[in-house]
Write a structure and sequence with these properties.
The complex is a heterodimer of chains A (322) and B (179). Chain A is α+β, with helices and mostly antiparallel strands and 322 residues long. Chain A folds into two domains: 181 residues, no CATH class; 124 residues, Carboxypeptidase-like, regulatory domain (Immunoglobulin-like). Chain A has seven helices and seven strands, in the order H-E-E-E-E-E-E-E-H-H-H-H-H-H. The radius of gyration of chain A is 32 Å and the shape is elongated. Chain B has a single domain, classed as Lipid/polyisoprenoid-binding, YceI-like (Lipocalin, Beta Barrel). Chain B has an eight-stranded antiparallel β-barrel with strand order 1-3-4-5-6-7-8-11. A two-stranded antiparallel ribbon of chain B has the order 9-10. The chains are: A alpha+beta (322), B alpha+beta (179). Chains A and B meet through strand 3, helix 4 and helix 6 of A and strand 3, strand 4, helix 2, strand 5 and strand 10 of B.
């Protein structure tokens, strides 16, 4: 009877795990995009120019800035028709139409011209004082551009691949966080029901067996906890790592604690199965299986501390609201 | 006679040549954003901003820029989430532009209109007050930009399913020097 209960629990665990596995398949992304250079009329690179690609049917706009060498890159655009516009300080806006296909696109280069001079009088559209007097001084100071500030191209160049990696990382860690919090519920319930699943009695005295319902309920909760923990761990382990990032702060404590609750979450069910077998054989739990309870307690404590660590420092201000 | 006239014309023209542009360079800066959550108060600080200002014919134009990833909150995990939420890899720089009359820069409180490019969006903040103090050749400017997540269409990050506050004020402390 108890063996059948354990089989049911195992089946439930496998079903639960299979529910999470489809979430792990990575999203497909388009490799199509637009790239080119932004230059001034004399062929010099224009750094910091804003390049916007607007998909004409949907209006969805993607933007980037040109680097110090004038290069820009807008990868991962959905195939379709785009209106590409370029704006930069001290230049008239430029625009072009482009069609993005699934194949590599030819470079879409822009040459930025000086801005049209301002209109001097209302009603004289297209004419201005400075148009008539090309060398007339203007009152507006020449605006500094990003290229004047001395940032390296590595600092100013858009990196869509890194953005995609960060998006995937955040998505996976959000799932990790939610699953982690959900896991804490059956974990706490398993600890609470642990007392009722234990055979009681001193050596030499008759052993009082736990009821089948109590034992099965505890085993079922333990199985659910293990499955949820495995899914939680999956989303942390396989979340992409950001390159060139040295870990600092509370995340280090959070990760260090996994060296306690990680092995604990493997050991606890193994010891639990041993204890279960001893219980079902009518024995009081003995030997290494007797460590099931203490190992579970340490694991749960480390798990709770891990949740608190990643939230640290905590300033409770719920009463202030949003 | 002709030579004298030419010399006189040359001397008369000298003051016009002497009216050169004034350039300002950002010497050091501390930019810090403040993020508020019912369980957290977080400040992300950057000292990596660079800036330049040009004053010409009584009008000044300034540009200040900082890499988004240079903001450090003391927790690398949180900084990476900030970088993701603000699309900081796609738009790696925060650009702040402002123009104001040169005469206004002499008063202890300067009110400026700011144009900020961040997270692929451009937001305008009119009439933002900045305190100005002078120490030798250094001009110290400090103030707070009342930025919000929604200004830049940033999806507010959440913790324990509760999003952070929309307001992310940016404290600015800068030291400028005439070049």
């Amino acid at each position: 009877m108890k063996a059948k209960g354990a089989g049911t629990v195992l089946g439930a665990v496998v079903c639960l795990l299979s529910l999470f596995l489809p979430l792990a398949s990575p999203a497909q992304t388009s490799a199509a995009g637009l790239s080119g250079t932004v230059k001034n009329a004399s062929g010099g690179a224009v750094a910091g120019a804003q390049v916007s690609a607007r998909e004409t049917p949907s209006g969805k706009t993607t933007r980037t800035l040109s680097g110090p060498d004038g290069r820009y890159n807008l990868p991962d655009l959905e195939p379709g028709a785009y209106e590409v516009s370029v704006t930069a300080d001290g230049f008239a806006a430029a625009a072009a139409k482009a069609t993005v296909t699934g194949k590599p696109q030819p470079a879409l280069d822009f040459v930025m011209n000086s801005p049209a001079p301002p209109v001097s009088q209302p009603g004289q559209a297209g004419q201005s004082t400075s148009a008539n007097l090309p060398n007339a001084p203007t009152s507006a100071p020449p605006s500094p551009s990003l290229g004047d500030l001395g940032f390296s191209s590595q600092q100013t160049q858009a990196n869509p691949q890194l953005q995609a990696l960060l998006d995937k990382r955040t998505h996976m860690l959000k799932v990790h966080q939610r699953l982690g919090l959900i896991t804490a519920i059956p974990m706490a319930a398993t600890l609470i029901t642990g007392g009722g699943a234990k055979a009681l009695g001193r050596p030499g005295q008759p052993i009082r067996e736990p009821t089948t319902a109590n034992l099965d309920f505890h085993v079922a909760l333990g199985g659910v906890t293990t499955a949820l923990y495995a899914a939680t761990a999956y989303y942390a382990i396989f979340a992409p790592r950001a390159p060139d990032t040295k870990k600092r702060g509370a995340i280090r404590v959070h990760e260090a604690l996994t060296f306690i609750h990680g092995p604990g979450m493997i050991l606890t069910p193994v010891l639990g199965i041993m204890a279960y077998k001893q219980e079902t054989a009518g024995e009081k739990v003995h030997g290494i299986a007797a460590a099931h309870g203490p190992v579970a307690d340490v694991t749960a404590l480390a798990y709770g501390a891990s949740i608190i660590a990643v939230s640290w420092p905590i300033h409770l201000k719920f009463w202030k609201g949003q | 006679m002709t030579r004298r006239l030419l010399l006189a014309a040359l001397f008369a023209a000298l003051p016009a040549f002497a009216q050169s542009d004034t350039q300002w360079v950002l010497q050091q800066s501390t930019l810090s954003y403040h993020m508020s959550h019912p369980m957290h108060e977080v400040d992300g600080v950057s000292h990596a901003a660079k800036g330049k200002g040009v004053c010409h014919a009584g009008q000044c134009s300034f540009l200040i820029a900082a890499p988004v990833k240079s903001f450090d909150s003391g927790d690398s995990n949180r900084d990476l989430h900030m970088l993701q939420a603000t699309r900081g890899a796609q738009f790696p720089m925060v650009l702040v532009r402002t123009s104001f009359p040169e005469a206004a820069s002499a008063s202890p409180t300067i009110y400026v209109d700011l144009e900020i490019q961040f997270a692929g969006q451009t937001a305008h903040y009119p009439h933002v007050p900045f305190q100005r103090t002078t120490q030798g050749n250094d001009v110290h400017i400090s103030g707070t930009i009342p930025a919000t997540c929604s200004d830049f269409k940033i999806d507010r990050p959440s913790f324990l399913t509760v999003p952070i506050k929309n307001e992310i004020p940016v404290r600015v402390d800068m030291t400028w020097q005439k070049n």
